[in-house]
Batch of 3 targets.
Target 1
Amino acid sequence: MKPFGRIGFGGRWLAAFAAAAIGGLRLAAADVVWLETERFEEAGGWVNDSQFVDQMGSPYLMANGMGETVKDAVTHVALPRAGRWRLWARTRDWSPEHHPGRFQILLNGKPTEREFGASGKAGWRWEDGGVRELSGKVELRLHDLTGYYGRCDVIVLATDLDWTPPDGKDAIAALRERHGGVSREVKSAGDYDVVVVGGGLAGCMAAVSSARMGARTALIQNRPVLGGNGSTEILVPPVGVWPGGRWDARDPRETGLIEEVRTDGNQRTVETRYYSGRLLRLCTGEPNLTLKLNAHVTGVETRPDATNTIAAVSALDVRTGERFRFTGRIFVDCTGDGVVGVGAGAVYRHGRESRAMHNEPLAPETANATTMGNSLKYATQRGLPKPTVTPPWAVKFASCGDFPERRHPPRLDAEMGWQWMLELGGTRDTYRDKEEIRDDLFKLIYGIWSHVKNDCPLLKAEAADHELAWVGYVTGTRESRRLIGDYVFTENDMAEQTLFPDRVAYGAWGLDDHYSEGFFHKGKPSNHPHMGRLHSIPYRSLYSTNVVNLLMAGRDVSATHIGMGTTRVMLTCAVMGQAAGTAAGMCIEHGATPRDIYRSYLDKLQQQLLKDGAYLIDLPNRDPADLARAARVTASSEGIGLKGEAMPATNIINGIARVVGKNGNAWMPDRRVAPPHWIELAWPAPQKFNVVHVTFFTKRHTPRTFTVEAWTDGAWKELAKVGGKPLRRHVLGSERVTASKLRVLLPDAVGICEIRVYDEPERVVEIARRAAKNQTLPDVGARLPWEDSDVPEETIASARKASAGMALEEAAKKFGGILFDDADAEITGEWGRSTHSTPFLADGYLTDGNAGKGAKTIVFYPNLPKADAYEVRLAYTALNNRATNTPVTIRTSRGEKTVIVNQRRAPKISGLFHSLGRFNLDAGSATKIVISNANTDGYVVVDALQLVPAGR
């Protein structure tokens, strides 16, 4: 077993035990009581901070009071005998110049001789609490004195008054086991086909995918919740495909297993309410999946009879000190830090490669160890007016000019999204120095808030009745160690859009490389070229090049520092997780290694991913088991798409289940034909089947309800009637039928992208039913950390609705006419998506960023049922930095007219719409409405277009 933190066992642990032998022999003749603080009977206002076990050796209690002293942590211990006992406490003075985390230890209500957390020395240290006469049952309390993150790992009571505990981490680990700080017994947690370590989005998708492939799977997560950076502990909204890119409104972005839990992916804090709860429900609902929370992997065991092959991982329960061993055949490292891979001896990298190594233009000339940094977030809320005293250890911002570019906090009611810039640690080691970096982020956050409350002329008055509601203490990490596979994904693969033959995932975030100085970098906070550029990700980057049975998914996959700027974001990590988990399941099915899957089963892996809803760029469905591919397809009618493209019935079996470019890849009924609309699949001979897949464009482009019927015994038989919560993709399990025809009936004219038909084993039918039910359940207990109680579901829905602006459907009912969102438009040049100003419709509005003048346009092609007179209205949000001369050109068969809009003036119609005038528009998609940023004198923004029939 190879330990990579202070808690480990095997040969290295025996050396540690020997190192502690002198102290151990002394204690053998004395009485010792070892008290791990994380196991106190009552934690009070102290939190179990277990995120630094690898670095400092143990979970510990921390006073999390944001400047208000917290309730005591309390426990009791029965001493083996009466007498004089010396108390030692392992503590950390996290800012030695100022001692912000001071606390007392009370024995039977009386404090010891010293204040702890005030050693004046850096790092974790033993502090002598003096000698006390004690007997019988003793009460111990951690009594906070400051509210500022005092911390205590362990308290030791010893009758040998001359004994001093050792400082060496291995010696402490040996004593910790000897005296019951961790269990001596290492319990078997079970033998599994697949062991996944790390419960972020990548790990959850990998574990569920593996389990659904039939593999007995374990998921080990070291936090009390799932979700990683997207959890309710850290609050980073998961993103993937750049939300402000040139995307067709019908493009669903990341699909597959992630759709069972995902939100919109538009960088809104409200989205973080949902992931921890939804992922827990998803994982606990899989009968083949065993979930172990609060379990920190501390060691890796390799097989003695097989080269570079993992046999087991060991884990510590961070609440109880129990130790467990998980054996398995395939392991998936989704830790982000590559801890399983590094522990197994996997080849890995840390830092930035040289430019010459992979010929990457954005890489430095010389390789270095710097990375992107770690982050924390904070939240404020309205409270009683009260002053904020600046802690002496906080970063000082005397004036607004002290803030680097774009890093001054915005108005108090702004989204937390800007807080990604609260980033530090890139010039250090983001894994080894995690705790110190976290503490520096505390200093930064309290300095920013002090500036807002006391010194900021822009926000001071508004902040008078605001207070800190929450400061995160679990760090969000962007980058640490990357495990190397058979292929290393590079900047050029993204920039040149390499289409890998072994593609199993995709992304389009862009090469988002943050400067190592983080918040204090002079200049813009990040370098983010190629936003929204679609790229594939190869399977060879998801398995280790030298550890035989190791896959990986998440930010620790095989990529260069520059390349991982696009692969590291969470929704992209999720689709990689599905690929890795599916491959792990196939390894078990075929008795194969991950590399064997590449060599012998790649097509099967890709087709399984497509079948399970994933998108692989330009790779069509070729599944021989899909009965729909051999069917003759007819429909009640055939219409055209939003951009005037043909939408024939045969599109549902063309192999591509989404919009790609200008090809809708769907059947669309003719809107002029009265419902019901239907599409039918017919076979020359009757077919047996029990599962039907029906896929729409997006969950916003779905019918109110639809019905699936089979032609059997001379009549149509209903197999499924679907309504309720809108879903993009439905996998409908039914009783097995034999039928020569199948049809889907729609009450609304919406597009269907794909229909698949299968005869599946009962296990697959049960998975389909379980997944369908899971997606329709309400979100329970979805709340943010500073909220005192669960938020009712209707309140959550209301907040979600408010966070996304007014829905188009609601706006259409309220304002009438025909509405086209900015996402329905054709875009030239790089436009960003923003939600900074209100009001807006749907998910925000597009902005030209006040850059690239003359090179950017937004074009609407309204598809109209007939030529008619319409009032044309433009929706935008007004601000004093907007353009006063935004040109909007309306082109019809009669000619064109350009209208100039002053976007600094608020729209007069409901605060949303500005009238461009009345125009005779052509039928179909012949009309073209163009918004340009040519020669404009400020920011050009576009939210939506409204066409109101004249006279209404």
Target 2
Amino acid sequence: MRPHSSNQLPIRRQSFGRLASDLRARTLRMSDGRVVLVRGQPDPHRLLDNLAHAGVMKSDKLAPRQLGFTEDLTEPLTAGLLARVAHRVRRRERWAERQRHGVSRRQAAELRRVRRRLDYLYGLYNQPTTSEDGFGLLIDEEQQAELDALARSAGCHQLGDAELPGFTRIVFWLSGRSAAERFMQAYRRLPPTSRESRARDQLRSTLAQLQVWRRRLAVEPLRGIRMEIEEWARRLPADLAMRAGLLGKKFRRSLPSRLQAQVEACRQAVNECSDGCRSTQLAAVAALVACDQHAEPDALAAEWGASVNGHWVQRSAAMLLDELPKPGFGRLVDFLGGHSGTSCWHYESIRTQLARGERVEDVRWALDHSLGDRVGDAGLRTRWFRRLVEDAESAGLEMMSKVDLFADACQHRRARSVIRGYVDWVNRLPADARSPRVLRQLKSTLAGPMLWAVDQPETLAAVEDWLQTAAVPRGASVDDLGVWHCLADACGAGHARTAVEAGRDASARELAYLHSLAASGRASQPQLVRLEKLARRHHAAARLPERGAKAVCRAAVSTANQALLRGLRDASERLLGAELAELIKDEPLSRCREFTSWRSDMDANQRRLLQEVLAKHARHGPGYKLHLDCNQAWIRAARADGVRVRRWLRPPGATFGHSAGWARVAVANGLLDVLLMGTRFQTCLSLDGCNNLAVLTNAAHANKQVVYAYDEHGRPIARKLLAISKQGTLLGYECFVMGVGEIQSDEVMAAVEDYCIQLAHAANVTPADRGEPASLSGCFWYDDLPVPWTRLLPSDPSLLGRACGYAGGPAPVAAQ
């Protein structure tokens, strides 16, 4: 008999029960698109190490080696393997047909399970996957239903731990439902996380420094090292020194033996500290349960933590030894000893900043605010950026809420100059000009338009021009309020003040007369009431110049800020072009920014297609798809197959009633509605989403349509993508609904689907649940996979639009 290769199943030597068991092996899709079968049990230590470091956000992209499986436990899913298994299954089915009725019935149930599993493996093998987003831990529909039921019964959404569902999926994939249930039970018994993580990091740094002293004993005089150690130990906190074993009896011990004892005591203290991280505890429990081990989670977590501590200390000591002969070593030791151990991961940045003369408190400030390596390079100095943030906070701009984004934006010199100029301008404004309303406008401008304006040279130049012209009143500096006070006098405040003081006004003379009567005691009660009223009016008139100056100041600041926003919009519209700028002229500035970023992501072919779409839309209106060059071949072929293209591309709308009112369903003939199909419903097709360029294909291709549902006020409440497949059938994709209740959502989705079925009937297209549309331009398109239709016939084939029992909506339009 010919021997089989090591990476293939010995199909002919296996019993059918063993074959069925092997088919139930775990399935995992690799980064290159291949599907592999994974068997056996993983190594718990390697599994724990990768889970605790990688985190659940990357758990769907773990390779077999990262999960603790060796190469002999994995096997690629190939066409030959599937063919041999299918041949064995067919032979078993023929054998079962010849058996007695009871045996045949038992065998038939087992064969059905094997056949479903084989079909699932065939589907995985034939599914095209070339993107990295398509690999991970694979489970079939039955397993997914079991996992969802387990999550609902355990109440994962109520436990408040974001990492729990990811770990539960890993355990389920590794060991099945019972293991996932045991994992959920063990999770509920986990103790709360420790607060000693900072002490652990400080002990790690102390242990690394002790290792450095031990290395230096072999090459340097003991007297000098002893003095350095004593000086260094005196600067440490007392509780830390006591816990690390640095305090106590020191007589009758040489310096090497004393250091050895201190190293052992400090290492023991480090290992006794809790990891302080919830993900480590979850990873330990997941590794134990998945590998079917009965050890305590704390023991495995402690063993893993000791190895991590050893690696951390060894790395820190090696870095310190490399810096030993260089100047500034003392400052580096002081910094690492006084800060948390997370500084080790940004060691190069810290060393560079300290060697360049940065202050220790500035470097610590950067680490405390999780800036890490974002500051400290040759351009962005830590001290400069800290002063910028403090100045912005003192002006009320609240830069700390987005300090990491501002650190990324300040990497270039021109961007730093622009942001610094805006903060200085706000700081020099008088307090009267920074009212709460004006300050909200300034904060919104800095955190929004100013933050993204530095990404494009054109918008950056617009801000620079504004700083030189629009932000400064003509003939005065920014902080000179003389111009604004003159404007206040010109508004009438000065004349009113002069009239009151000189007594030439009738009310002023009356006020003086009533004062004299009140002083002599001859004023009547009505005269006293009149006197009080005139006194209040006089006080308000006296404050008129001050109030006028404040109002003019605030108006000037708001006008200058609006001039900046107008300049940014003009620069963005020049980047977008005349056609696209005209299309989004009524959209806010933030939408203009999204379109600018979306257009910058396109390649040359997509930009040419966008220009053609915009030009045809400007010339032909809603029927622009009929005139695009990329659609002509498909339109001719579709008409030859009997598709009514014009009814498909320009159908009438329909109205329907629901429990909260009425709504209208129609195809989005407007180009802007198609481009915003993802942005309005916050999907991956948003202009800033991962599949943002797919909306251009939906807007250009004639075999794709977007159906909208609008409420009685014209606001979009639902959206569904349609496509005609290569076989000439109608495919429907996920329907997204927003802004309505749960009951109305079901009604809206049903009405949208009814409209789509009527559209298929009017266009002479058959609805289908599977298929793929043709690519007409070669541009990127995201296939979200069609969803099955709940009905295949329209409720009213004679009318495309009809009113569903509600008389308040507009009249339906009959199909022509």
Target 3
Amino acid sequence: MKKLLILVLFGALAVTIAACGGQTPTPTPQPEPTAEPVEEPTAVPEVEPTLVPEKETVSTEPIIGVAPVDSATVTFENEQWVVAVEGNLPDGCTEIGEITQSVDGNIIKVEVSTTRPADMMCTQVITPYSESVILETADMPNGEYTVEVNGVAATEPVVLGEEHMPQETAVDITNTVWQWAEFQDTAELNDITVDNPENYTITFLADDQVSIKADCNMVNGSYTLDGSSLTIQLGPSTMAFCGEESLDQQFLEKLGFVATYVMDGENLVMNLQADAGNMIFANGGPAGEAGADTAVTVRTTIDPGMVRLDTQGLPISWQAVYVPETPYDQSQPPGPKGLPAHIEILFGVTDPAQRRPGDPVMYIIPVAAYEAMWQANGNDSVTTTMAGIYQTTTVLTSPPPTTNMPVLPVEEVGGKNDVALYVSRATSDENSASKSGYRFVGRFAQDANPITSDGLPLQYIYQGFTNDGQYLVSFFYPVTSSALPTNADVNDAFNEAVSAGKTEEFLAQQIEEINSLSPSDWEPDLATLDALVGSLQIEGMVSSGPIGPEWQWVRSERTDSFAVENPELYTLTYDADGTFALKADCNNVSGDYTMDSGIFGSVQHQPGPSTLAECGEGSRYDYFVNMFPALQNYKVRLPGDELELIWPADGGSEFFQNPVPGIAVVAESAGPISKVVGKTWQWVSFSDPANGLQDIPEPERYEMVLNEDGSINVKADCNQVSGSYTVEGSAIEITFGPSTLAACPEDSLGDQFVQDLSFARILFLQDGDLFFDLMADGGTMRFSESGSAAAESEEPPLTGTPWKWVTFSDPVNGLQTIPEADRYQMTLNEDGSINIQADCNQVNGTYTLEDGSIEIILGPSTLAACPEDSLADQFLQNLTNARIYFAQDGSLFFDLLADGGTMRFDPATQGEVTGTVTYMVRSALPNDAVLTVQIQDTSLADAPATVMGESWYVTGGAQVPLPFAVAYNPEFIQDNHTYTLSVRITDGDDNLLFINDTSIPVITNGNPTTDIEVVVVPTG
């Protein structure tokens, strides 16, 4: 209405201006000229004198007007009534003038005038004003009065008299969790009854911010409350897909159209604009009080010192650290965050504050504590997502999803998961602490984007649980592939798809094409990251979830379901040695079992000896004992306190609970010292900024033992030294005492060994080795446990090996993978010359090596023009800046001068075994079948095979014969070893379909590497 009035006034003003601008003076008629007049004397009549009008003057008196009023708010402050007036003045010269008050019946009239200089030109700028007017009510009779300011009624009345003192009539709707119960459509066509109001909540915070839970998503925003007027502005939001039945989108859409609110008893009713309907909310209790903390027992504790990991040769160090609780906070976009105390495994840094978004990280988060933190704040989204991770872990659909994979923690989720590639269960080794989970290559996006090598970054993502079901294991590592298109390659096609409304079809086609790539087409190789995740070990972690607790039988869910009245009379305990024990009412039974690893899988029981007492009427002894031979599968439900044993053929389940209440937590480690004391450590290498990595000859001449009592015994070549040490966390300080004083050989490093130990300030463990960092960047000492120093794998030779540039890391940009690494190679020759392939050019030069340092001088070069994406110039510049070199895990590293970064090289030589796989039965492979081919070192009959190379392929409907190619590094092949192929075909759920049942030797002893035909046999 206000807009309409303004338009009408503006139109009237325009008409008036037009009328004035078009008016012209009318000329006075003049007589027609006649013949020249004859002058005749004329008598002059006597007339009264007249006054000549004076020139009109402009008044300097100010112009008095009426102030426009937008709002008037009455409050009672300091024992007096005050009306706050707000409005807008028409220009910069107009000011508030006199304010007067009068009483007309039960109306208090306040008149606010304006003044404006009459002789001043002013800019036409609307100027807001506000005035507080104390109402003169001292002599007024008691009663209720309406306040009008320039005809605008105030929001609240003035109530005079003791019995009419102002009461708190407005209901405070802030800091309450309002649960959406129903929607009443004015037209009665689209009424909604909300079945789960607790999933759709809104909380008005005191700082004008609003927190919204829309099913599985969280939304932040702001609100404006003015009397009964209410508007809600939606802000940043998570973008998870909550399912087809979810009301999340309708909920948010309606909140955006709220106009006013009223209270209906205990319910909050929000009225939509244009009388479109009413949203009715029930009071869900004060914010933050739902699920208030209660005392709980700590059942399991792990600390960073219990964690082990193998980075599988990736050029990056790792460090497990304790991270204190980050309290639940919903004040910052894009949504709530909060984590309980947890463990983070960092890569390349040692402090979580040093980690940048997108850098690799692995989380180990206690499930129960994580869910409890969010539930205590009225937010079930973590619990919902955790359930989704569990469901996907235990029942991975076939074909697997390509979007909307459930992922935690929310700190790593920057939008909707719109791409999920290579979805499968991750592999694990025998000692893995997390054998149940899934991995995929994915990303998180706010809107649609094509999948490209230079667009939204992709990550290898693992979501799983520790074997006891008590901790979430979450891993993120950036990956890329030179086989991916660039933005320039696909932008036109993608934009056409968007315009045609076929964005999802475009992405689905991309996903299908990219899924056909081999895992080795990625950098890092996805198989390497699978192995990294599978190598996670946690000291004391069971191999299978059921092992350990004394489980009590609580209910049977079958055709004839029942609850067990005395669960404590029926217990089950699995020991790690493969035996189980039953308490069956008044009898005891023992037996053997076999069980898969992790939180779910198959189980077989073979009961043995049993007591045979008669337990009396009503006992379930017979049923309990006799069910175990038939039970086939198990699941440990989150957070590790419920066990489900499953009958075959959908025959139902038996449920057991851990009767010991409690949760799992993480704790600050006692420090790596707990893993160090009492062992003999040999000094195997030393590195410093000046000389780089230096191997210690004859490490057995330099040993130390840190004793539990704080004393240290040192063998410094031919001398023995004693002393003491103190440790606090990872900080160490060593003080030496008495020493023998024998004269050691000239090549002895005994004095340097003792001196370096006295400078040690930080200790840490990595890959089973002990490291001391010295004070003032003095270097790093590395120790191996006595007996293990000689067991290190042989490194490829530095000279004569073609090396390809695979990664570069620097302090600014972190780890960067080099696309198409084969374009950038070098060979250090025995004669001190270097041959370089810098993309499309060849460069010669010379190099010098001395005690871990290197210097490269470039010489003649071809001068071809390389492609625009070439890194040739950077490659050559980095080589000339190389100053330190060292080899580790089969890779070569160059450290550049002035902390310029680190180049990593891998051997460029590569062998390959190729062939086809077929079978002789009439059977078609499912579309999601996976072919896995490994080259294994099977030289030792009494030791596990060593995998030398692996490739796997999703067949995508292809049938036999299936071609394969498996790469391996010839540098690691030994002529006297035996290498064979291991071939498996599984379905999308990792069920084994075919396997080779004969030995297939390759590579050595005259065996082939090409055109190998493998015949596999069915497993069933």
